[in-house]
């Protein structure tokens, strides 16, 4: 029995079969809704308001995550709702996925561009009658030096139907040897473009680049549509265990990238078929899903991961560029240290410095790398999405209406805050969440084990999920509810901060280095750009580093993709970095649990936070 499902306020009508789960129907219909756990009914984020129609709630999850008032208003969870008849639902403000504030500033200056893909005028076209002779003939190219490029039969076939006049050949060196991948009539050497793309767990960001000059012609970003299948990497790995699931996630990320391509080519007035090279930066899981490679083996601790770059033809992936173009992925190191981290190292240049550096990139997954020109030592931690503003009741990504910075008056205990785009409050994003925890601790509303202290102010009150601090009263928000930070939220944030700090300090312990030894501290991504790093230290995400220069490096993953797009030398550097980076898998490391446990306190162990210890 076919049903109709109307989704407001999007005014989207979906079709479903009787008994279908609402979240599944919304995913397949392209409706984006928050779903941190990917439909496992353990996060409570996929909220909808049931306006009309026959449904059946088949789980007790709504009772766990929704208040009595919300249930009375018709709130349900899309993951726990079966459709039994034609229905109407509204996605409330807090469950809509808004366009986030995305970090676009990222590129490296390449002094001497040496892209993999170049275009040349053909001096002579060897027309032949017998295809048996084709492999033994060559094509002479104006200005080309080096190993004679390979030529496929398809290229010869194109040459034989091109009329008189100049002919342009595209030569790619991506696949380990020079290869003529395309020919076209006319003088087209000035029409050669590349795409640098950061394939993030949450967002996809792309640059359209003139391969001749290195100039960035256009930039665009989109939410990664895989997000409704789960925000955490392990959730997507689980979904991709079947071929059907893997194919779906690959198609979804490709459609997201193709939207980015459409935006940048339209803005720059470029034909997508003139994009002859693609370089992608992403974590190991995202690289696998991009290339359609089964990632399920990445769940195994200490599993060996290839450190060779993944290379695929665009036509095999479904990229809307020149079908013969190659897509190159910046190489991975381990199951949770991927090409994005290699891009961070390239952006920081720490691998060429004699001084000791620390690089940290915190998002849904955290990457930590210590090192210098002689060695690189790394790990990763499952910090969860708390630092991206999700995983807490009123958390959100860095989008319009998100509280991005907070201070608390030590006398009145009231929060003063700013929001993205100065909009009315919708929730708290990652940088605001870090400020909030640090401020609560600083004014004495939070003890050293991360527990709210009642009795000092009526802003700390008893709620459905235990004690909570009222950040913003409901009459000042877009959702019509008080924005609160609950004790459950705090426990989750403290756990995330302990994972990050513990990962850093366990590596320091193994390397026998102290906080005084680190000379440069590179913080990558949106975290490093928008977060008050002083508050991050105050709540114990990072140790104090008294002798370190702090350098936010922006979107290092995108920087790595841009660098490897414009320089074959940078591709060699990326491969060298990947090959010589030692990786410690914390899942099987006996010392990590000890460091993690010590980091559960605010801010943490005294040898890593000496200023706080003296102040106390």
Overall body shape: globular
**Total domains, how many?**
4
Q: How many whole angstroms does the radius of gyration measure?
A: 26 Å
Report the span from N to C terminus.
67 Å
Helical content (DSSP H or I, runs of 4+) = 25-40%
Average pLDDT, all residues: 91
- Residue fraction in strands: 25-35%
Query: Low-confidence runs (pLDDT<50, min 5 residues)?
Result: 128-136
- Count of extended strands: 30
Question: Main β-sheet: number of strands, strand sense, barrel status?
Answer: 6 strands, mixed
Class inferred from helices and paired strands: alpha/beta
**Strand order, largest beta sheet:** 15-14-13-16-18-17
Number of helices: 17
Write up this protein.
The protein is built from 17 helices and 30 strands. With 616 residues, it is an alpha/beta fold. It folds into 4 domains: 2-95, Roll (Ubiquitin-like (UB roll)), CATH 3.10.20; 117-185, no CATH class; 193-329, Nucleotidyltransferase, domain 5, CATH 3.30.420.480; 348-616, no CATH class. Helix 9 crosses helix 14, helix 9 (339-348) crosses helix 15 and helix 11 crosses helix 16 (590-598). It is globular. The protein starts with a strand and ends with a helix.
């Amino acid at each position: 029995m076919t049903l109709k499902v109307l989704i407001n306020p999007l005014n989207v009508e979906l079709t479903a079969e009787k008994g279908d789960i609402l979240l599944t129907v919304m995913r397949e219909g392209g409706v984006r809704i928050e779903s941190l756990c990917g439909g496992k009914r353990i996060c409570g984020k996929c909220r909808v308001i049931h306006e009309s129609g026959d449904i059946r709630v088949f789980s007790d999850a709504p009772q766990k995550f929704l208040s009595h008032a919300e249930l009375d208003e018709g709130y349900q969870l899309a993951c726990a709702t079966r459709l039994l008849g034609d229905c109407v639902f509204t996605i409330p403000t807090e469950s809509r996925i808004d366009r986030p504030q995305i970090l676009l500033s990222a590129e490296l200056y390449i002094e001497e561009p040496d892209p993999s893909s170049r275009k040349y005028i053909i001096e002579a076209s060897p027309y032949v009658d017998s295809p048996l002779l084709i492999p033994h003939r060559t094509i002479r190219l104006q200005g080309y030096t080096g190993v004679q490029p390979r030529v496929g039969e398809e290229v010869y076939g194109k040459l034989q139907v091109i009329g008189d006049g100049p002919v342009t050949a595209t030569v790619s060196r991506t696949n380990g040897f020079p290869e003529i991948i395309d020919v076209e009539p006319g003088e087209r050497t000035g029409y050669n473009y590349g795409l640098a793309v950061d394939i993030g767990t949450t967002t996809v960001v792309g640059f359209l680049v003139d391969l001749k000059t290195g100039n960035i012609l256009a930039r665009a970003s989109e939410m990664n549509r895989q997000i409704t299948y789960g925000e955490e990497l392990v959730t997507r790995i689980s979904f991709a265990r079947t071929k059907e699931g893997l194919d779906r996630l690959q198609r979804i990320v490709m459609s997201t990238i193709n939207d980015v391509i459409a935006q940048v080519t339209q803005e720059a007035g470029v034909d997508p078929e003139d994009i002859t090279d693609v370089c992608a930066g992403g974590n190991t899981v995202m690289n696998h899903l991009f290339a359609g490679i089964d990632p399920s083996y990445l769940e195994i601790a200490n599993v060996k991961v290839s450190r060779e770059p993944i290379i695929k033809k665009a036509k095999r992936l479904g990229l809307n560029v020149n079908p013969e173009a190659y897509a190159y992925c910046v190489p991975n190191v381990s199951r949770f240290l991927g090409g994005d981290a290699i891009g961070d190292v390239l952006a920081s240049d720490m691998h060429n410095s004699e001084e000791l550096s620390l690089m940290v990139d915190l998002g849904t997954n955290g990457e930590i790398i210590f090192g210098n020109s002689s060695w690189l030592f790394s790990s990763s931690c499952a910090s969860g999405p708390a630092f991206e503003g999700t995983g807490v009741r009123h958390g959100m990504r860095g989008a319009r209406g998100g509280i991005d910075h907070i201070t608390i008056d030590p006398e009145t205990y009231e929060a003063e805050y700013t929001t993205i785009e100065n909009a009315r409050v919708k929730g708290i994003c990652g940088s605001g969440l870090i400020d909030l925890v640090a401020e609560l601790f600083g004014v004495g509303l939070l003890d050293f084990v991360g527990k709210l202290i009642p009795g000092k102010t009526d802003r700390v009150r008893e709620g459905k999920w235990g004690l909570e601090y009222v950040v913003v009263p409901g009459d000042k928000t877009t959702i019509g509810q008080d924005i609160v930070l609950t004790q459950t939220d705090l426990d989750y944030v403290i756990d995330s901060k302990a994972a990050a700090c513990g990962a850093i300090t366990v590596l320091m312990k193994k390397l026998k280095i102290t906080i005084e030894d680190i000379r440069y501290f590179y913080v990558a991504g949106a975290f490093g750009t928008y977060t008050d790093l002083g508050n991050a230290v105050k709540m114990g995400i990072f140790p104090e580093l008294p002798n370190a220069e702090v350098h936010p490096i922006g979107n290092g993953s995108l920087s790595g993709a841009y660098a490897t797009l414009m320089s074959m030398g940078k591709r060699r550097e990326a491969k060298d970095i990947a090959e010589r980076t030692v990786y410690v898998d914390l899942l099987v490391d006996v010392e990590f649990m000890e460091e993690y446990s010590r980091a559960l306190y605010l801010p943490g162990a005294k040898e890593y936070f000496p200023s706080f210890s003296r102040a106390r």
